[in-house]
Amino acid sequence: MKTPDNYVAFVGLDWADRVHRVCLRAADSTRDEQSDLTHDPLALHTWARELRERFPHGKIAVALEQSKGPLIYALMQHAPLELFPLNPAMLAKYRAAAKAASGVKSDPLDAHLACELVRLHRDWLRPLPAVAAPVRELQMLLEARRGLVDQRTALCQQLTAALKGYFPQALDLVNTVDTPLCWALLRRWPTLAAVQRARAETLRRFYGEHGVYSAERVEERLAVVRRAVALTDDPAVLAALPVQVTVLVAQLELLHAAIVDYERRIAALFSCQTDAALFAALPGAGAQLAPRLFVAFGPDRSRYDSAEGLQRYSGIAPVKKQSGHTCITQWRWHCPTFLRQTFHEFAGCSIPQSRWAHAYFQLQLERGKTPNKAKRALAFKWQRILFRCWKSGTAYCEDIYIAALRQHGSPLVARIDALDNAA
């Protein structure tokens, strides 16, 4: 994305919890102006309005080490400010290379360097795009939901560990520990002794109420209860671990309700977007990845100039390092993590749903790549396809793409035909 050159002032902002250090330089000046800015809503908005009054024409470039958070949310409300998020590693390396090889660091120095970066090296930076409020809301909901899902995963791991410490048979009485069935069972019978005291008919009714209708499966679980032997009779363990399990179950039930609510809000907001159908039709996208892909691209068709720009920005494109006869290709570290996860996870979900994606993934595995590297390579291919669909507003069609592969003599065609014949 190209940035305009009609900036009337440049600001480097070294943010902190309470007081931010500001370095300002007017475009027609050679002198830096250092000041402090209190982290207070009134102070932030007053400062932004004073900048507008001082520089009434043109934009003001502001560089800071954030891409989201309260400071960003406050400054985004002021249209004359164009925000340039800095990667902290970039600022640290620029500090070491340009000004402070000795390792010295201070807030005024960092504010000055941030101002210098946005003033002299804007081609290194990418401005924070102006995204419509509904799209930003959708992005925040998606990222928050992912955080809750990660918390649920961690709590499930803790729950599994606790059950293995005193009641491992519970893991055989449910499919997985991340389901309401498991939590309801543990809330009602938190120990082996408790579930063994329950009548068989009570257990059968419980499973029926929670969606387990297979009589054979229910009887298998009743047999587990009948023949179970306690792992330990240590009174300390039997007193402490059930309490921990009860707490974990309560947390998981609250998280589950919150995740369901987030998913409802995401679905409602996504369905209102103009390009919703474009991303919902992608193979393997599903209810969560379709809105994440939509947010990754956004409704503004000028956001990315090329598929290569998207591939680099999202971190899917690898980095090449060459020195003499040595050339190394490695993982791209500095990128929006959630964005990279979106494309990586979509690639994985597309494998069972897309014939060419399945064939390409198998080809990468045969070439010696690990599953994760093979998925990143597949994501790289998908980004080029999705970019073309998004840029033209054309829905993806599997048959059209495979026909194009056939026309260009792609080696994937033989694999796709073999998969079709096997099916």
The gist of it:
The chain folds into three domains: 122 residues, Ribonuclease H-like superfamily/Ribonuclease H (Nucleotidyltransferase, domain 5, 2-Layer Sandwich); 134 residues, Helix Hairpins; 147 residues, no CATH class. The chain has 423 residues and is α/β, with parallel strands linked by helices.
Give the secondary structure arrangement, pairings included.
Layout: E1 7-14, E2 19-26, E3 33-38, H1 41-54, E4 59-64, H2 70-75, E5 81-85, H3 88-99, H4 107-120, H5 133-166, H6 170-173, H7 180-188, H8 192-197, H9 200-209, H10 215-227, H11 235-271, H12 276-280, H13 286-297, H14 307-313, E6 319-323, E7 326-330, H15 337-350, H16 355-366, H17 371-392, H18 398-407, H19 412-422
Parallel strand pairs: 1-4, 4-5
Antiparallel strand pairs: 1-2, 2-3, 6-7
Structure, explained:
There is one protein chain. α7 runs antiparallel to α11 (235-271). The protein has 19 helices and seven strands. The strands form two sheets. Strands 3-2-1-4-5 form a five-stranded mixed beta sheet. A two-stranded antiparallel sheet has the order 6-7. The chain has helices spanning 41-54, 70-75, 88-99, 107-120, 133-166, 170-173, 180-188, 192-197, 200-209, 215-227, 235-271, 276-280, 286-297, 307-313, 337-350, 355-366, 371-392, 398-407, 412-422, and strands spanning 7-14, 19-26, 33-38, 59-64, 81-85, 319-323, 326-330. It has three domains: 7-128, Nucleotidyltransferase, domain 5 (2-Layer Sandwich), CATH 3.30.420.10; 136-269, Helix Hairpins; 276-422, no CATH class. It has 423 residues and is an alpha/beta fold. 60% of the residues lie in helices and 10% in strands.
